[in-house]
Design a protein that fits this description.
The structure holds two protein chains of two kinds.
Chain A lengths: L1 H11 L2 H19 L5 H8 L8 H26 L8 H12 L3 H34 L4 H12 L1 H4 L5 H16 L1 E2 L6 E2 L13 H19 L2 H9 L9 H22 L6 H15 L11 H25 L5 H11 L9 H4 L1 H30 L6 H20 L2 H19 L5 H23 L11 H29 L1
Antiparallel strand pairs in A: 1-2
Helix pairs in contact in A: 1-17, 2-4, 2-17, 3-4, 3-15, 4-5, 4-6, 4-14, 4-15, 4-17, 5-6, 5-14, 6-12, 6-14, 6-17, 7-20, 7-21, 9-20, 10-18, 10-19, 12-13, 12-14, 13-14, 18-19
Chain B lengths: L1 H20 L7 E6 L6 H16 L4 E6 L4 H10 L6 E5 L1 H10 L11 E10 L2 E5 L7 H9 L4 E6 L4 H12 L6 E6 L2 H10 L4 E4 L1 H9 L3 E6 L26 E8 L4 H16 L1 H9 L10 H23 L1
Parallel strand pairs in B: 1-2, 1-3, 6-7, 6-8
Antiparallel strand pairs in B: 3-10, 4-10, 5-8, 5-9
The chains are: A mainly alpha, B alpha/beta.
């Protein structure tokens, strides 16, 4: 490795690369901050720009978009209670309440610092442990993936609000929505009613716009204009984070970064799962779990560090095994292949300097993201001071454009509107929307891996206990459930007192 | 009242701005829609072709786009496109030969809705086996199939081209009853499944199994072609056609909308032919993507579709069992 680092640094530290990194970071931040305009869409749109570039500047540009997208999604989550990207949904739970307490800049700052830490942490993991970690991750198969999903479903308890039963009801609705489309194991249609637009199921980004963004507009329509103005006036702060808060964030940030890396190296999972796992664990391990959902600094830090820690980790299986860790990285694969580089361990010997330049570059990307974020955060924070009569139509237009742009059809705009109405009714019934999102994120993956595992084992459930990794996940599930029960017991005790 | 007025005006201005941005620029840009994964083989080759289009044409610029959705994407494309619109779309035997038989309701189009332009590439799929099974050629495979053991094969999609190639091969060996197709969400996942020991075999593009092969996780048993593979890291691998087993190549047809001027279709075909004849593109296709340049006439395309249909009709019961 050391013999490649010096030539790799020589390849990386050029003005061209630095400029492309910064261009990528800027574009990624803006795209991810706009609900519906996902990071993957941004990478697809800007991929042709890299065709004529050599591999390193091309990858630096795309990595800039990818990493900054991790942070950018949190901006709208904090400011307008709408995650710019699905993986920023967990950030929204505490980011927006903290913003409503008049600490918008502080919330954005926490998200930025946590994102940068998570990103650098995962970049270092990629640099020093990439090939070794990838070999272990490659052993995870269908039953292990299913256990990861079950572990993920335990998070529902943590985001259900006051009533777990209501949370479970919402989650079931999410799981049902995840069933719409082609059956993943047989390709037969389910609940499509012959509508070809539904063959691929409900697009998460589109549903998100309805569930969290447009429903806010509907809710605002119910309020008097005077009340809306009061909300806006409160949002002014110096962005200061106290020493005590930094201390409180340290442990969740580190643990969440680790969780982000572990989730990210498992192909097929992604930043959404990582941020929810981390958020749930941070809540379970916090001394102040009651603050979660009401503007907890630990909650924001945990979710953000985890979703950015995924960025480096998804590159581990890509660069070492040629397996893309998530959809965005799969598209980046083509930027390498178009330059004649076929990722895999063999590439570390044939083009080691390029591989290490990319890995070193990821650290640089995160540092530039931190720098840009520091300057742009104050700019973003100004969004909240825009009068509601101007801000609301902008949000609506961006939501519509975002929903349309996902698959470039008006059907999705309709879907977003239907989900907005659905979310509005659920609010009236006091059913939380976040578990719906979780059900949708985990539903398809859970079902596919469950059915495929049983197909592989010819129906024997023992396959779910067939490896050391399965048992590790069983232990994690038991631990998570125990923590939930302990939390509920504590809540009950407090209520009695 | 003033606030509401400002809101309404702003919304209208932004909507008009958005709609105005949707208009065409008047340039001869042809959008090429790939209805499969943006990270897939077809999307990558399409990107490469788009990159080269300005080198070979002063009039036409190809713009590659990928919207995952298979039949759904093509349905939308057909519904939204008219003759002479500067739009093209990919389709292959998966739609024309497999979906048209197994799930025709899913297709709101037929071959007659398109004007054939060119075949972008040919891919010869390979069958890989767990390395420790020591199955390295068709003779070994026949012996294994004859043993009556369960034959689990990882494929990308339950009713994909890969699934039918596996069904045709093992069905023709008389082992169709023992065949268990395990569907994965992507070709890369299916290729990995065999190395993890979840299945005994996998059918995949050559490029997707290459890294696993180089790590020693799998052996390459045979190729789904007439003759042994001539190029690349798997050169010399036996073709199943040599032993009389059914096979087909995976192809990617570039289609314009039916009714588009014949001269324009011819111009597009020439552009693609020039791009595919480019030495850099051909080398990239062969060495990096492990694909072949395989330009075809429309008659050859129709023949390909019909021959795959025959295989699908014969082995559909094995795939859907």
């Amino acid at each position: 490795m050391m013999k490649y680092l010096v030539p790799a640094a020589g390849l990386l530290f050029t003005l061209q690369n630095i400029l492309w990194i910064n261009a990528g970071v800027f574009i990624g931040s803006i795209f991810a901050a706009i609900p519906g305009l996902s990071v993957i869409l941004c990478v697809i749109l800007f991929l042709p720009v890299t065709y004529s570039m050599p591999a390193i500047p091309g990858m630096m540009f795309l990595l800039g978009i990818y990493c900054a997208g991790g942070y950018g999604g949190s901006v709208s989550a904090i400011l307008i209670n709408t995650p710019g990207t699905p993986h920023a949904a967990a950030t929204m739970l505490d980011g927006h309440p903290l913003s409503q307490k008049g600490r918008t800049k502080a919330a954005l700052k926490i998200a930025l610092y946590a994102s940068a830490f998570g990103g650098v942490f995962s970049a270092l993991m990629l640099l020093f442990l990439g090939p070794q970690v990838a070999r272990v991750a490659a052993q995870l198969g269908t039953p292990e993936y299913f256990m990861v999903c079950v572990f993920g479903l335990t998070i529902i308890a943590g985001v259900s609000g006051k009533s777990i039963v209501r949370g479970l009801l919402s989650a079931c609705l999410g799981l049902f929505i995840a069933c719409i489309g082609s059956d993943p194991m047989t390709s037969y249609d389910r609940f499509t009613f012959g509508n070809s637009r539904l063959y691929l199921g409900m697009d998460l980004a589109v549903c998100l716009i309805g569930l969290f963004a447009l429903v806010e507009v509907l809710a605002k329509a119910e309020k008097s204009r005077g009340a809306l103005r009061l909300d806006t006036a409160k949002m002014e702060d110096d962005g200061k984070i106290t020493k005590e808060e930094y201390k409180r964030m340290a442990r969740p940030v580190f643990l969440s970064s680790l969780i982000g890396v572990l989730v990210g190296i498992i192909p097929g999972t992604g930043a959404s799962e990582a941020s929810w796992f981390s958020y749930s664990q941070a809540k379970n391990m916090s001394k102040n779990p009651e603050e979660f959902g009401h503007g907890s600094v630990e909650g924001i830090a945990a979710a953000e560090s985890a979703n950015n820690a995924v960025t480096g980790a998804t590159l581990i299986p890509l660069l070492t095994l040629g397996i893309p860790g998530d959809g965005t990285v799969a598209i980046m694969l083509s930027a390498l292949m178009i330059n004649g580089l076929n990722p895999g361990l063999s590439l570390f010997t044939t083009d080691g300097d390029i591989m290490y330049a990319i890995m070193l570059g990821l650290i640089l990307v995160n540092l530039f993201m931190l720098l840009q974020g520091k300057f742009l955060t104050s700019l973003f924070a100004k969004v909240v001071s825009i009068p509601q009569e101007i801000l609301t139509p902008i949000i609506v237009i961006f939501c519509m454009a975002g929903a349309y742009s996902v698959n470039q059809n008006y059907f999705d705009v309709g879907v977003a509107l239907v989900f907005a109405v659905l979310a509005w009714f659920l609010r009236k019934l006091d059913l939380p929307a976040v578990p719906i999102l979780l059900g949708m994120v985990l539903g398809s993956m859970t079902e596919t891996n469950f059915r495929r595992a049983l197909l592989i084992s010819n129906g024997s459930p023992t396959i779910f206990f067939s490896s050391v990794f399965c048992w590790i996940f069983v232990a994690l599930i038991v631990f998570a459930v125990a923590m939930i029960l302990r939390g509920k017991w504590k809540e009950r005790e407090k209520a009695k007192q | 009242m003033k606030g509401r007025f400002v809101s309404a005006v702003l919304a209208m201005v932004m909507t008009v701005g958005l709609v105005a941005g949707c208009g065409s620029s008047g340039q001869e840009s042809w959008k090429v829609t790939c209805p499969w994964a943006p990270s897939g083989v077809a999307a990558m080759v399409s990107q490469k072709a788009a990159e080269k289009s300005t080198t070979y044409s002063e009039n036409i610029t190809l713009v590659a786009e990928a919207i995952k959705g298979d039949a759904a994407t093509v349905n939308t494309w057909v519904a939204d496109t008219e003759a002479n619109e500067k739009e093209m779309v990919f389709a292959g035997e998966g739609l024309f030969s497999i979906t048209s038989i197994l799930d025709p309701a899913k297709m709101q189009f037929t071959y007659e809705d398109f004007a054939y332009v060119e075949n972008l590439y040919s891919s010869i799929f390979v069958l890989s086996a767990q390395a420790d099974m020591n199955i390295k050629n068709i003779a070994d495979l026949e012996a294994f199939a004859a043993s009556g053991e369960e034959i689990s094969v990882a494929v990308n999609g339950a009713t994909s081209s890969e699934a039918f190639l596996a069904a045709a091969l093992f069905g023709d060996m008389g082992a169709g009853e023992n065949l268990k197709l395990v569907a994965y969400a992507s070709a890369a996942e299916a290729a990995q499944a065999v190395a993890k020991g979840e299945t005994k075999f996998a059918v995949s593009h050559q490029s997707q199994i290459l890294e696993t092969y180089q790590q020693g996780g799998v052996s390459i048993v045979c190729a789904f072609d007439e003759k042994p593979l001539e190029n690349g890291p798997f050169a010399g691998t036996e073709g199943v056609g040599e032993k009389g087993y059914p096979y087909f190549r995976n192809r990617c047809f570039i289609m314009a909308r039916q009714g588009t001027d014949a001269a324009k279709v011819e111009e597009l075909k020439k552009l693609y032919d020039d791009i595919l004849a480019d030495e850099e593109v051909a080398t990239w296709l062969q060495d990096t993507m492990l694909l072949e340049v395989d330009t075809m006439s429309e008659d050859q395309v129709k023949e390909h579709i019909e021959s795959v249909k025959a295989i699908v009709n014969e082995y559909k019961d094995v795939v859907t069992q």
